Amino acid sequence: MFNKKSQPEKSLRQRALEYLGKREYSYKELGQKLKPYLDENDDADSITAILDDFKTRGWLSDARFTEQMVHARRAKFGSSKIIHELREKGVESSLIEGAVEQLKETELASAKEIWQKKYKNAPENRDEWAKQARFLQSRGFGFDTIKKVLNLQTDDD
To answer: Phi and psi (nearest 5°) for 43?
Structure first.
C-alpha cells in the first residue's frame, strides 16, 4: 500500500503553483496561504521571493485577481461588499478604484436583478420595504441604489 509518509515534502514553490493552478490569488492572499508551510529551513523572505518571482513572470497578478473577483461577485453582491473583500485580500487601492468605476456603471441593474431573484412582488407596506432594503444592504448595495430599486418596483405596480 502507498505510504503517505514516504512522499517527499512539497516545496513552497510547488504549493504556490498548485494554488495558482486552481484559481487566481492576490499577492497578500497567496502569501498567507503559504505561511503555514514554512519549515525550519525557510523564512518569511523565501515566500516573498517566490511571490516576487511569480509576479515578474506574470503568474501572479493583483490586477487579474481583481478583475476575476469583480466578475465573479457582481452577480450576487453590490460594490460595497466587493470593495471590502478586495481590501481584505490586500489589493492596492488604485486597482480597487478602477473596480469601483466598473461596478458603479452596472450597480443599479445588478441590484434590480438580485432583488427580482429574491422577491417577486414590490413591497406592499413599510415593514416589507424595510425587509427588502435590509436584504439589499446585506448584499453590499448603498442606500441610494436600494431606494431606487424599491421605489421603482413600487412605481411600476
So the answer is: -135, 175
- 46 grid coordinates: 523565501
Neighbours of 84 (CB within 10 A): 13
* Cα–Cα distance measured from residue 148 to residue 36, given in angstroms and rounded to the nearest whole number: 46
Residue 141's identity, in one-letter code, is F
Q: Where are the domains of the chain?
A: 10-60
Whole-angstrom distance between the N-terminal and C-terminal Cα of the chain? 68
Structure confidence at residue 5 as a pLDDT band (50, 70, 90) = low
Q: State what percent of residues in the chain have pLDDT above 70.
A: 90
How many angstroms separate the Cα of 136 from the Cα of each of 91, 118, 120, 126, 151? 25, 10, 14, 15, 13
Give the right CATH number for 10-60 from 3.40.50.10420, 3.20.20.140, 3.40.50.2300, 1.10.10.10.
Answer: 1.10.10.10
pLDDT tens digits, 84-122: 999 999 999 999 999 888 888 889 999 999 999 999 888
Higher pLDDT, 157 or 142: 142
